[in-house]
Every structure is written in C-alpha cells, then in structure tokens.
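re: that complex we talked abt at group meeting.

here r the seqs, copy pasted straight from the sheet so there may be weird spacing, ignore it
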Amino acid sequence: GNSVTQMEGPVTLSEEAFLTINCTYTATGYPSLFWYVQYPGEGLQLLLKATKADDKGSNKGFEATYRKETTSFHLEKGSVQVSDSAVYFCALSDGASGNTPLVFGKGTRLSVIA
Amino acid sequence: GAVVSQHPSRVICKSGTSVKIECRSLDFQATTMFWYRQFPKQSLMLMATSNEGSKATYEQGVEKDKFLINHASLTLSTLTVTSAHPEDSSFYICSARDPAGAHTEAFFGQGTRLTVV
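got the structure back, here u go
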C-alpha cells in the first residue's frame, strides 16, 4: 500500500540555520505530494504541494521538489526563524479520487531557538 | 481558498456525558470528510471516513458506538463522543477534500481539544 516515511524529530536549529526534513514515499500510480505545517494547538495548514514529477512546490521560503527517481519530497528552507517552530507533515494522495484520505508521515517537530 | 470550520475549539466535559463536534466545509460540497485523533506529540490517527448519506467507514480498532459520525448534508459532518471517559481526552481534527479533483489537497479544521474530567 501507499506510505510516507519522514525523518524523526525532534529537530532543533538555531535561527538562520538551513533546514532539511527528509520525506520518502511508496505509492502506485502517480501521487500528488504535500507538506503540511501544524502550529501548537491548531489544525494542519497546507504549506506546499507538487502534483507531478520534477515539480517544485514553494511557499514562505520553504521548498520541496518531487523526485520520482528517488521517490522523495524533501522539505528545505535556507534560513529558519523562530516562528517556523511547528510540526511538519509530509503526505501523499493516491490520485484515485478526492474521496480518499491523504496518507501522512508521522510528523517532524521543529524547534528554532534564537 | 476552501475552508473547513470546526467547532468547538475546546470543550471540557464530565465523565459519562456526550460531546458533539461539528465540521463544516464552507466553500465546497464535501461528499466525504475525515476524522482524525492526535495524541500529544504524536502523529495523526485516521479514525473514520464520513460519507454523506451513508454510514461512516471506521478504521480498525475505532469503536463505532463510542465515536458516532453523522454526515447529514454535503457541508456538515459531526462526531459525537458518547459516554466520554478521561482516556477519550485528545485533540480531534476533521478534514475534507474537494471531490472534484483527485490531486487536490485536504483542508483541515482548527481542531477540537477535548478534556474529560
């Protein structure tokens, strides 16, 4: 079945450090890939997405490239801020329909210290 | 963009009582909605898929009689935690996807923090 594996946290970085959170997936067909962010006490918000191979999703300084050859969708940011502290989830849709839930990784907690 | 609204954001109830959580899709008609449970510092656990006009599909290990789901309209799904106990205390989140697209993202409600005392 479809699955998502992302690096386990927690990850602690100093402000302005470079961030990478690894995400790999297993899927049949042609999935779409997503990164979601969850701030404390809130629901999930879409951070970025990519719907086909070699697409790059980007938002708020974050970016991720859909790599079919390595089945990966790693999240990167060149310079993190304290306000980026949150839990990040990688997810995929199987592309079958909009009536199926996304498949999520276990989440990676990021703490950025000043 | 599409919005999913969840209410209430926080609720405290006494052990043995029932609590209803509402999830509304504001910008699109959601034939399907999803209910998740999240324990502290842990991942999302899919509890059930709510289907408009038919019975919900529960994930293995989720008690159907404990967590009642009703999807009475194309914009509203409700989760009722019946006879709540302290171990039901958790963060519950609903989600919906626009059924028109297979590659669309999921939109999430703000979550409900349930505390059973």
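couple things i noticed - Chain B has a mean pLDDT of 91. The two ends of chain B are 37 Å apart (CA to CA).
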